[in-house]
Amino acid sequence: MAERPVHPGTITYVDGDTNAVVSVAQAANLPEQNAFAPNAEGVITPIVKVVARSAGTARFVKELGPNDELLRSTTLTVPA
Amino acid sequence: MSVLRLDANRTFDAAGPANAEANDDWFAAAAGFFERGNTVSIAGSTLGVEEMTFISEAATDAERQSRFAQFIGNRRADFEDFKRLLDDVMAAQPSVSSQDFALSQQEARRVGVIDAVQPRAYPARGRVVLETTSSVDLLARSISGASGMSSFAHSLFAAAMHGPAPALNDLFDRGARSPAESLAVEFRQWVNSSDFRRLPPPVREAAMQAVAANIGGDLGPVIAALRANPNDRLLSTGLQALGSEVFVALPDSVRSALQGAIITHAGRGGIQLTLGKLAESPAFAALDLEQQSLLVRYVGCGAPEISEGASMRLQNLLMSTAYVAMSNSEQAAALAGFVATDPPQSAGVLRDRVGGYDAVRLPYTMTGPTEVAAYAFESHQAPASEYIVTVGGQTIPVMMPNPPTSPDGTVLSIDVVAQGLAALPAESRALVTTVRVSDRANSQDPLWRVAYGWSESGRSFMTCGAAGLIDIYPSAPDNPQSQSSIDGSMIHETGHALSSQRWGALPQPPRDKELSPHSGWLRWQNAIAADGTTPSGYARSDMPEDFSESLRLLSAVRGTPEEAEVRALFPARFAILDELLAPTG
User: Fold this and answer.
1) Cβ contact (<8 Å) for B461 and A59?
2) Interchain CB distance below 8 Å, A25 and B492
3) Interface pTM (ipTM) of the complex?
4) How does DSSP classify residue B129?
């Protein structure tokens, strides 16, 4: 991974269905690929917020940067 | 007795002159009419002073009739009808104001009887197109006798088949409605009657062809549908509702949409009946235009996955004891509530199906593999096989694990991945830089399980980075992903990259800031409101999800028979997507 910036410190996990904060993690305790991701321009950016939503047997997670910019979006499957 | 009246104050004896002597007088009178520069067009031929002189100079009345028939193309013609009409035109002109005449002409033109006014000596004078086809008239009369068609319907039918005087007379006498509307309603009722269905097929066919050719407007599709589905009684029943007073009073756009929806759903009786109930419901008529339009779109959308569910829910409402006991205003409120709170979703369209995205899938080529000793997958470095997939002129590296097996589940094959890339909208695919197919689960999965309290069973399937890197993880052995599911996920996830690259970041809800007037997200927000529909249940969660689900829906129906109807359900959103996906350059 390219040179990375300083992380603000925490990653907030939000339940997107209720907009409630469910957990907060210290970025320093996480592997680099779990605390940083490239933005749309490819610049390594701190992940500061994760928002998860549910839809039937699927879950959707978005990892966001300091300005709510989308860094990654993931589809998860849950067996019915 | 049939009378012709172009002017409210004058009638004419339809029996007309009965002998050659009377005809001599008539030709003498007619000569003056033509000498003043008037013309009459009959069956496409224009009759002026020269032609009338040619006809009137014949030695006998029989010869005159023969010349007249020859003049109009040897068609069997009712000379007496022609004389009656012309006589009336000649006599009525002085007393017909230009306004009255213009109205009559306009109304008559709508049923194809009078073609155009060609003023010469007087502004109020016109050129009258008269098609007297006795064989057609005979057919009309035989239908009338066989089917019990009312005399009025017969007259209208005769008018539709270019019949002259009797039809004109009835049309002008009708008064309450425009002749075209009267004709349409009358004909619909007749076509939907048991009398009509008992007619021999050739007669029905002839009748429908004649009316389709001559009424024009919106009746043609009705007739085409009836012709294509001659035994579909539910179609007839649904169309029967279009003859109701309630339907006739609806706005044009709603009438057109209702009619189109009933026709579209030929063979799907439940929906036709629901639409028919709406067409004759005073409560539906009491809704505003937007509510009416949306309700018809919900129930009438041609994609059965959408409209059947909507129809069923609406039918349940319409037939419920509580609804039936309501007043009209209460029923209108219930329908408005249905529109506002129970918009059907297109989840059925998005449901995985065999070949779900084949209509949009492009051909692709693939080269490789090239072995890579240590490649950086999402969570680890490992040997990889690099393939180059070429779709639409774009080359995309796809990194597969080597060997393509996984302790964590089933690794997608390179072919499945390539097919997924080939199904992406071109603008989404253009954002994809690399696909990494890992033999390991997403390294985020354990963290998210802890953060959200999720069970072990859920796992990441696909990630799309904002910069266009796609990661695909092994599927659980007991939860394999279909090609359609892979296609849909790839479209959805790359859709997020597309929207965020084009329109920028969207603050997470709850949003207290107003969107910029120039923001693409504001346009999308307005489109959601304008459409009033939702592409899936999940799309309701937030605007970016709505965007990705709409993109997925558009891809699912593009190039399929369902596309037009689904487009009608999402016109505002699809208009934006069409702009985004339009080829550039």
Assistant:
1) no
2) no
3) 0.96
4) E
